[in-house]
Amino acid sequence: MSMNTADSRIPVTVLTGFLGAGKTTLLNRILTEQHGQRIAVIENEFGEIGIDQALVINAEEEIFEMNNGCLCCTVRGDLIRILGNLMKRRDKFDRILVETTGLADPGPVAQTFFMDDEMKDNLRLDGIVTLVDCKHVAQHLESSSECREQIAFADTLVLNKVDLVDRAAVEALETRLRAMNGLAKIQRAHMAQVDLQQVLDLGGFDLKRALDLNPAFLEPEYPFEWGGWYALSAGESVLTLEDGPDPDLGVVLLPVSEHDALATARDVADRLFATTASEAQPGDALEPGPHFYRLRLASKPGFKHFRLGLKTAGSVAFFTQHHPDEFALRLLDPRGQPLKPVFEHTYNAGHTHDAAVSSVGIVEGRPVNPYKLNLWLTDLLRDKGADIFRMKGVLHLADNAHRFVFQGVHMLFDGQADRPWRTDEPRLSQMIFIGRDLDRAELTAGFQTCLD
Amino acid sequence: MSSVEQTPTVRIRWTADLADGVQDLAWSPDGRWLAAAAVSGPLMVIDGATGEIAREWSGHDGGTLGLTWSREGRWLASGGQDGHARIWDPDSGEERVKLAGGSGWVGGVSFSPCADLLITAAGKELRAWSLDGRLLHDTKPHASTITDLAWHPRQPLLASSAYGKIHLWDWQSPDTPVEQTLPHPSSLLGVRWSPNGRYLACGCQDNKLRGWTWPEAQDFQMSGYLTKVRVLAWDSASRWLAAGDREIVTLWDFAKGPPMGKAPLDLEGALDVVRDLAFHPDRPWLAAGDQSGGLVVWTLRGREPRVVWHGALRGGFQRLAWHPKDHLLAVGGEDGAIAAFEFKR
Prior knowledge:
The structure holds two protein chains of two kinds.
Chain A: E1 10-17, H1 23-33, E2 39-43, E3 55-58, E4 63-65, E5 74-76, H2 77-86, E6 95-99, H3 106-115, H4 117-122, E7 123-133, H5 137-143, H6 145-153, E8 156-160, H7 167-180, E9 185-188, H8 207-213, E10 226-232, E11 235-241, E12 248-256, H9 261-272, E13 278-280, E14 285-286, E15 293-296, E16 304-310, E17 314-320, E18 330-332, E19 343-346, E20 357-364, H10 370-384, E21 388-395, E22 402-409, E23 412-420, E24 429-436, H11 440-448
Parallel strand pairs in A: 1-6, 1-7, 2-3, 2-6, 7-8, 8-9, 13-15, 14-16
Antiparallel strand pairs in A: 4-5, 10-17, 10-19, 11-16, 11-18, 12-15, 12-17, 20-24, 21-22, 21-24, 22-23
Chain B: E1 9-17, E2 22-27, E3 33-38, E4 43-47, E5 53-57, E6 64-69, E7 76-80, E8 84-89, E9 94-100, E10 106-111, E11 118-122, E12 125-129, E13 135-138, E14 148-151, E15 157-161, E16 163-170, E17 178-193, E18 199-204, E19 209-213, E20 219-222, E21 232-234, E22 240-244, E23 249-253, E24 265-267, E25 274-279, E26 285-290, E27 294-299, E28 306-312, E29 317-322, E30 328-333, E31 337-344
Antiparallel strand pairs in B: 1-31, 2-3, 3-4, 4-5, 6-7, 7-8, 8-9, 10-11, 11-12, 12-13, 14-15, 15-16, 16-17, 17-18, 18-19, 19-20, 21-22, 22-23, 23-24, 25-26, 26-27, 27-28, 29-30, 30-31
């Protein structure tokens, strides 16, 4: 169960999310289902906690700067004071839940458990759970940096109120959030009904899961989110779309032979996306070939189509700037039957709507030199700490039989020796960064300098 | 050489048990009673000679945070998480008044030196009360939560610490205290006047000691701590300021003024994070209790400080308090144990 039996510190789960996203509902569920445990709840927002046996303390957020106004070193003074008092009790708590206000920046909450020695000695940040209101999150993502940071900081994202939006919109939202935070487990929920195992006890450093779940995480970024390979009949196929989050959509259609499938076409498309686009209005004909089309969708509200004529039957690789689900995009064959791609792939898009916030993963088999790693991380966090929201890693250190695990928030990190490597597992170092304007090539190259 | 002190013999005079971890201990000024508060609320008054429990109250819902005697020993005041302060009459066992401190926890209670005022600090609100419960003054709220209160030993001057500054309240006239502030760019965790009233010292969240001379308000600062500085203690001669870090107690020598730029004496002997420090009221003895239950007493007489006694308590220490007139050290632990150690030469 517990990945790290040596760590006897009390786990702290932080619940964030905008007002109305369902934080209190989830809190009440945790308290109901974990009724055997002694749980203390620190609330920053007025909520209805319906469970008597939990200790509920209302706190007013107080942000303290620690070092010359450095933003990465801010902590929550109210939490230090309240949790410091709770820890003096004879009956220790099994778990602490901290609910933030809807507009809270999760940074200072998380940093509190790294910066303050008393907190760090006695408490362990188990995970940050961010609740997302599927119906309203799109507008918050546009307007609020706190909303983007709550998503970027999360270990688990709960897409709540999925019953209020259609399936395609949930798919699109998940793709969008995944591009921002490749580390988080994503749970879809109605009335905050989630599997609590995905919300509590996240402390195990199971990065493989995050990497398996989202292989795109380790790949380079492309200017498109999706590619599909279709077998088309001769005649006029039709591309249909609905309104989506953007007024236009960049696409590339390339004739491909069966051998080269998507990989070669992907590199061609990558180059084409950097060229000047040909504008296409609804009803226009598109021609498979070395063109970058920008489909102008806003000129005709609602359902629209583009024509795609092929003289002979053949295969076409199709790349779209955004995920097709975001625009309810479909390809119909000349008889009007919807076509499924023979093969499709979701790419790690460098551009996403939420610009800036993205994830970078690194996997390396060669052993890491802890001294070199320390030098690199010290420099990296000093220069880029403000933009690195979260960092997690499992490292294979040279001449060390134990896994070394660490996690960080902005400029702070906390690492320790973990269990020994098992004989049946590969000794791999895995690191994940989530942040603003991350440079994958630079991070990867930097990590390469730490190898023995 | 002749001044080298003999090692005292130490025995336990009595022990008592609180319902929960010890939040605070306070000797009555005459040393007859020891008042104790439990983290979860209950209060006790213990006979200092025998350890018998003389009074017991349920205290504050949610938890008691602080405890203090009036200077003449007539009243005992407490503050707690229920947002109230209470004044108790230890003679009759009655609760004399219950005061609404404000919207937050009442983290601090302090009687003025002439025992005509009780100050309460609740969250950001500082209030002054008459001892029969009338609100005399309600200051404009501090910018952040008040972390500690300390009266100047000789003047009607109250220091309150918070994030970013010390507030000094000159209480010449009880209705209109005059406020002055002393800034520090971090959270100030505790404030202590030297017994001669010349220095005001604060432990800081940013791993520093910060202080000011009085009345010049000239600031000084000592850094180099590995952790935030939680506990401070002055010796009765106002020469030594002790501060606790991880396993080390640092001792700053104020014989020639604030020792800025000079190295402190490092006292080793504690095994873990130091939870409390206390100087004996007239002997040069410094006691430190750590979080895993280790207790050390050093003597500062002689050429170098040295450990004169090592003790222990089950669990970890929370509070230490020397008897005002006797060689008796009361200690309180995180599992509720209270013990009085008697030091004899």
